[in-house]
Amino acid sequence: MEKNIAVIWGDCASPEIVRQALRVLDKVAEKYGHTFHYIDTAMGGEAIDKYGDPLPQHELDKCLAADSVLLGAVGGPKWEGMPGDKRPEKGLLRLRAGMGLYSNSRPAKIWPQLAPASPLKPEIVAQGIDFIIVRELTGGVYFGEHRTDTLPSGEKQAVDLMPYSEHEIERIGRIGFETAQKRRKKLCCVDKANVLDTSRLWRAVMHRLQAEYPDVEYSEMFVDNCAMQIVKNPAQFDVIVTENMFGDILSDEASMITGSIGMIPSSSLGEGTRGLYEPIHGSAPDIAGKDVVNPTACILSAAMMLRYSFGMAAEADCIEAAVGKVLDAGLRTADNMSEGCTCLGCAAMGDAILQAMD
Ligand code: IPM
Ligand code: MG
Fewer CB under 10 Å: which end of the chain, C or N? Predict the structure, then answer.
């Protein structure tokens, strides 16, 4: 197959991990007889520096014209003082909205080899950690009105609105149910229905959908309780469906219990097969340029792209198996290092994964 991939190199440590992911894709192309064309695309800090805009229309157009998009991570101290719409993160939000990617899947699955790196007690880890957070990605407080007013007293007041309409809830709710159907058939809707109207509307829509998916065991949980349950008894979860900001917060927590945020990929999809694939971690400015960042989440994001956007299951399996072999061999990066293992840099971890794909 021949595919066009828009590649967003990203900021700070991000180009280091994207480079390794492209080496892995090249290896897949060679091994399975595919051709991947990479289209360099600027978004985030790089685009601000080049064009004064975190996502100019011509760069968004490259993503819309591609078969899929691979991203490292954007942002960094250099752009921190910028006004809200000139920040790297704004480019990411506009990309998600511009591509219509309302459904973000973030797996929290522990690699058994990394159990010692989990901050949870071994007896909790032993029960298993394997769930997916399905996060609504183009609505809620991220995309509601943001405003800072000056009150008559001279004091400032800021407002961020959190709108959700029924169709936005229904389409992500369906993804939640369908994801559960392909797994252990348990779906938990996470919200704050004891306080928020948006959450009460979520529940009403989810109750309507529930009737269409009788094979799925459906439950509901308040987000504060969920944050607690994720560390107390993560084995209870199969699929969590939740709104944009709750999903942002819970997915960082969920990644950490698996041993390292440096291992977790994500997919963002909308109506078609074109998606955006990115690690859930940030651009790691503190370790940029040192060749110590873990490239695995980005490499696994490339694997997700092959599986979900290009229908290349064997190719994705090959990458994931290679990651498993590398962990079996006791090879680690600084973020998930444990006693008795060997700590590699970013490029050396890329080399090890490439070799394990043979
Ligand atoms: C994420 C990130 C982004 C988000 C930031 C960089 C805007 O934290 O993908 O989880 O909040 O969605
Ligand atoms: Mg986040």
Answer: C
